[in-house]
């Protein structure tokens, strides 16, 4: 996997401590930050999927409430093909 540099704001004492860490310590910290960001991305994906599912469920319920059945939908789709 290719790597890219990012810049984040941290308190001065943290920045100074980071600069004084060994290469191994910095790599460990970078791995932890990567894991944290990957977790955030996964949580965003899950939230987006859940939102989509809820939207689809709501649309389905509204369609059923208005009388649209799977059979009618299939008929409409077949007529347009």
Distance between the termini: 44 Å
Main beta-sheet strand count, sense and barrel state:
none
Classify the beta-strand content into a percent band: under 5%
SS summary, helix count: 3
Number of strands: 0
Outline? rod-shaped
Give the low-pLDDT segments: none
Organism: Aphanothece hegewaldii CCALA 016
Protein name: CopG family transcriptional regulator
Question: Can you tell me about this structure?
Answer:
The protein has 81 residues and is mainly alpha-helical. The protein has one domain (12-80). The protein is built from three helices and no strands. It is rod-shaped and about 70 Å long. The mean pLDDT is 95. This is CopG family transcriptional regulator.
Output the keywords:
mainly alpha, CopG family transcriptional regulator, rod-shaped, 3 helices, 81 residues
Quick gist of this model?
The protein has 81 residues and is mainly alpha-helical. The chain is 78% helix and 0% strand.
Annotate the secondary structure layout.
Layout: H1 12-20, H2 23-65, H3 70-80
């Amino acid at each position: 996997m290719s790597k890219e540099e990012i810049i984040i704001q941290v308190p001065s004492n943290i920045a100074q401590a980071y600069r004084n860490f060994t290469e191994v310590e910095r790599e460990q910290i970078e791995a932890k930050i990567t894991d944290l960001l990957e977790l955030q991305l996964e949580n965003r994906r899950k939230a987006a999927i859940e939102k989509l599912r809820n939207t689809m469920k709501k649309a389905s319920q509204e369609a059923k409430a208005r009388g649209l059945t799977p059979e009618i939908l299939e008929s409409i789709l077949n007529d347009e093909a």
